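Quick one: structure for this chain?
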Amino acid sequence: MKIATSVSAFALLSAAALTTAATAQQAQEGSIANIDEPKGTITILLAPSGTVGANGANSTQDFRLQDGLLFNALRYGDKVTFTSSVVNGAKTITSLRKE
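Got it. Here's what it folds into:
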């Protein structure tokens, strides 16, 4: 019985980890709100996601850029679609496409 409990707990934790990893790679949309090249970060005003009647308040998030060369291509107000994940404890953009 103890082995079955351990196996069930491991399966549950594995499923939770896979769900978190899949969510982290989901594409998001937003616009560039700030570029801080010395810190290596950009701030993105996230587009509202959700259903009709959801809270319309937009939020901003700071991200590190995996490829520092992107700083040259980005401007304040650019609309972007991106994916991110946590790398070394920091939210990091892993892919980015300007609209």
